[in-house]
Structure formats: C-alpha cells, structure tokens
Amino acid sequence: MHDVVIIGGGAGGMMAAIFAAKTGASVTLLERNQKLGRKVYITGKGRCNVTNDCTLDEFMREVPRNPRFLYSALSYFGPQHMMELLEDAGCPVVVQRGRRVFPATEKASDVTRTLEKLMREYGVRIVYDARVREILTADDAVTGVTLTDGRSYTADRVIIATGGLSCPLTGSSGDGYRMAEQLGHTVTPRSAVLSAIETAVDWPGELMGLSLRNVTLTMKKGKKTLYSDLGEMLFTHFGISGPLVLTMSCHLPDNIKDADVTLNLKPGLDAQQLDARLQRDFDENSRKMLRSVLPGLLPVRLAEIFPRLCSVDGDKVCAQITREERETLARMMQALPIPLEKLAPIEEAIVTRGGVSVKEIDPSTMESKIVSGLYFAGEVIDVDAHTGGYNLQIAWATGALAGTCAAEEFL
To answer: The pTM is what?
Structure first.
C-alpha cells in the first residue's frame, strides 16, 4: 500500500512529496514526463524566480484571485521558509530587484536538482512516464489511481498537482481538472493570465520589439480604475506585453473589450509642464518637421508614427502646428488609447486563471470537501497572482501543506 500518491512532479507536487515523506508517509510521485519540474525550468527566463522576499500581508496584496484561501498555506510555508529550505539543502539564494528571489547560480536546474535530492533522501518513489487516467474511490474516499497504460497504485491519500493549461510543452494538459470533475468537483472557467494581450488596433505591430521604460499603464472600466502602475512594457507583432501588461492581465474585466486602457508616455510631467516642453521644442525647431522633433521626447520608432495616431500631419513644420494640435499631442502623450481585443492563447500564458473551486477545498489542509483523502496543490487550484515569484510560492506553499496534512492522517 502506498500511503500517499502524488500526481504531478512540478513545483507543487515535488514539495508535497518532500513534506509528506518527511512527515512519515510512504510516498509515490507519478510524473508523466521523463523529468521533474519542467515548468520550473522556464520560470524567471530560466533563472527560476523561486519566491518573493516579502511579508504575508504584502504577499496577499499580490494575489488578485482568492487570496484569503491561501492564508493558512502561506502561514505554514511562506517565502522565508522556502529560502531556508533551499539554503539548508545546499542551494543558496539571492534577493534581486523587486525582492525577487533566485538561486545564487541563477540556474533553474539547481532548484529542481535540490528538490529531487531531498525527495530521494526522504525515500520518495518517483515514477516517470506515468500519466494518470483515473482516481479510484469507494464510499466517497480515495482508494488509488490507474494509469493510461493499465498500471495501478493503491493509496489512501492522493494529491492532485498537475498544473494548469499554460505552457503545455511542460506537460500541463488539464488532466487535473478532468479528474477533479469526475469526482464531483466544480472547475471554474479557465483563461490565460499573466498573458500578453492582442490589441484591436494594428499600430502596436509597427513597433514590434520596442520596449518602453518608466511609463504608466492605466486600465479603467467606466469611471472605475482597475489597474494603474509605472514600469516597463513591450510592443509585439500582435499587441502588447511586458511586465506592466502581464500584471494588468490579472485585473481584466470579464469582457476584455470593456477595458479602457491608456498609456502615459510622460508620467514624470504634469499636463502644464508637458505643454511648456512642447512649446519650447517647437519654438527652438520652428523650421523643422514635427516628425523630426518628436524623437527628443519619444523613442524614434514611436515618434515616427505618433503624429498619425494624433491625426496631426507629421510633415508640418513646427511653426505651423496650431495650439489645438499641440494640445492634442500633449494629451495623447499622457493618455494614448490602446483598445484591447483578446488575451493571447492560454498556451502562451505564464499561468492559468480558473481551476478547482476553492469553495470545495479545505484551506487549512488542502483536502477536498467532497472526497475524503483527496488533496490539491498548485496551479490546478483557482488561485493566481502577479509576477515576481508569487505563483511559484503558491505552489510551494499549497504543496507543503497538502503533503503534511495528507501524511498526518497516518500518525
């Protein structure tokens, strides 16, 4: 009899295995790939942003989706616990800009290697090429799992840690959602989050590859501000991306076309200061064309198309620019509209929004309220957070709590 079977060898699954085995259970980890932590390898652009060195209250403010559900898990195993675990296991960490935490080597493989070492030290049995077809139950309690190749494992406790739908090349196929639904769980609609966004206008494509720094992106629905922050963004062939956009995607209204998004290219100036700057530039370059003067204020590629976005003739010499045209240029520099069309495909997102309903999971244990002995960890749960190591920490924390509580049932 395998006391605890864990489905999925990603962040949540590996941590669940470590804590369940450390607590005293016999643990089998089933991984459908031929190696563990494939999504961990690509986090932080391959450097693995393992967590964020912040307080619990600060962490909660970075979780727009069901933050209260995570209170117990993060209290049990928070960012500092994760840092200590890696350090004690021989994988030193460093804290960088934005309090993002990385392995000192900046190699994601070192994080996975460290966790795999801990699992083996605690006696976790790891089975590769193992895709689960079904979780078996009797009298509303877990009894084991069967694999797609016909193999089966008996177990009193099963932890689903299969990830979401984002990054399918890492093995995330939505299997956990299917299994949860088969057992009577509600799975909320899934969509991309921490995602690039396709725009309803074509001009961002003309700026593909252009990165902007120290700009403010603001999103409103009607009079309500849903998001506004200063930072970096990127234009792509289909729309917009970069840190500001990824975070903004966490706050989109249900109908993305209801979002009123504007870009402030000059947030360091108020309207009066910007108008004065334009007047000075135009006076000093009165015989030059507008398009040749704007690069003093904007990146060259953006300056080239900016007059068109403002319905102003870029070939006009500055002396001919009217007051109304100058005011339009200034206004658009501080509130350039970017109509949105849709999120990029979920396969290209960093995280999946939606998942197993938190109303059906005990937040103090991660156990199902519907099936005894069934637990959940990681992205399969309907929680998500901003970029900066928060989503990975959610996986570590829910995995640690699920593993401990599943194993404690045997004590």
So the answer is: 0.90
